Amino acid sequence: MGDEGGDRDMVEEQFNIWAVFKTIGSQFLQIDAIMPVIEKFVKGAGHSGFGNSDMKSAQFRSDCENALFFHPRLKESFHATMNDFTSFAMANGYALGAILMSNREKCRECKKKLYLDGKPKVVVIYHANFGTRLGSRYTKKCTGCHISEHYGYWTKHDKKHIDLDSGQKEYIMSTEETAIDVKLLEQYASLLIVGALPFTTFVNAYNRMYSTDISQAIDSFTSSPSKRRKRDSPADLTDLIQKRRRLDRRRFEDAFFLYASIRVRTKYSIPMEYTPYDTNEMLKMLCVSYYDAFVKKWGDHCCDTPGCEEIIVLDGNMKNARQVCCCNKIGYVQFSGLQEKVVTGCPNTPMQRHRYCSTHLGFAMPFRNDDVVPSALNQEQDNPLILSIISQKTTRQGRLLELLWSDNRKSWVRENNLPEEIKKLLEHNENLEHVTVSVTEIGQTRTEFRRKTKDEVTSSLNLSSNDIVDAKRLKYFIGQEDAHDLKDELYALKCGTEKGKHTAKHTKTAGILVFEKPCGIVIDFQELFGSESKTQVYGHLHTLLQREAHKKTEVICYDDACHLKKFAINPRRSGFKETTQKMSRMSYIIDRFHFKNHVDPWCISQCNPRNCHQLEGVNTEVCEQLFAWLSKFCHMTKYMGRWSFIFLMLYVIDHHNEDVEMAKKR
């Protein structure tokens, strides 16, 4: 037993010497002062030779030099040794840059022992320190329960379930053939919050660092599982590493969103029935719960900062906008407890290389009327949805069909000018019919159209007159405010600060509306459509003030407070509900920075920050200070999908709030 113990100690000492050489190199042999520390580490904590004995230090140095003489590769860096090992393994048909396998031994349902599938799957690994290399992924299975345990996740009946502790592992499996080093994702997460670093910039830096051509053609990419090639020869492995050595921006973006979603779910204990393979679907499922958790944590914030209890500062930031489907004048937001409706258009992201989203592509088009003289054709830029075909007639120029559009207009359109999907329906004698559905997402209730499925009744169009957006009948749509409808001069201000008239192009949103406390904590935000209209600002503020946590709010600080106050005291809505009555009595004050732009005498007397004693010592520019940082994300968000955009805004604002809280505790 004594000999075994001595052998074990010798092996441990040899391993420790190897670790020292790989960590700090062989230069320590020239420095006498640090030799006792290194000797104690190599020989273990029980070693008693930690002193000033020159003889002992000389003996230890001699042992290290002998080890270096017999094993000269100890001088090599760990990186070089790793490259030699992985190259040797590839030359023999193995991908051994890492072994990715679940630590679970028993089935999570029946508790029986899992069996290991001995056939490895090749995985491309993007490492923070070693660059791109190949590894092997092994699967453990329970045939009785149809469960497959993978590294960081498990599947059952082709549905993916994330192990929330996978964020603590060394890698994140973004796809079945791609793994990203968690350290790489952590580095990016920090740079994202601090400097709004775009995905493309970080990926290009990675590719340049590891001597790959950043202009190289990208490899084939898909986030959904596909049929895998069998790669078990050195030539196949070499070909794969050459094609996939360059980190693709889309791969990294998907990996980061998966990493961030795991962090968020762990942080807020958010359950998910399963995790879709598609990133957009995954974020769509998560964002609703994430928003609720965000509001629950930050929505009722109140601290000892002056004004934090009774003041809300709000403002819109148009720079954080994203592209949307061109199908406008379709669907609207209905604010709870209010009569106002806001026409939003389709909020979804257009398909790649198209102007419409997947739902409306082939069913929407610019409004036209082919039954009028040519000079009057296509004078409008509206892109409504075609709801139904009312009738048809045949002329010498061909067949014309009478269409009902989503804005309640009717027109005759030649068959050749119809979208392709509608032409296909006509060829198969199928009906074009829509129904209205009510959708509640991210604190908003929205009414939108969707096509009837084959299982639904198709005998008649399930639409009421209130479901169709008629721009002539619907007063409260984007760009129109009550200030232009009332004759009383009290409602006509000389200030040029009205934001409702600054309408964004129909291909993008109008940014976000942020609600913030004077201490800098963001308590809510919402997307704006079309423009920063008072209908939307008032509606979102009304929704916020309905919460119990804001019953003590007395002052609203806003850069266009004069128009918002006019909107709130309008008799047509001020007495409608308890919250609207409260809003009509509240103080609406312009922030100090923008007050100089207001010249109307009514603004100066009613919305002057100098006349509001509650604003003493209050930072009224917190939104502008926030936007100085948040606007840096505009280059990233411009082309983001809807749910990627919402998740990113939640994620970065959530971290902003945490940074504000930490700063207050210092």
UniProtKB/TrEMBL annotation:
Q: Which domain of life is it from?
A: Eukaryota
Under what name is this protein listed?
CxC5 like cysteine cluster associated with KDZ domain-containing protein
Q: Name one Pfam family in it.
A: KDZ
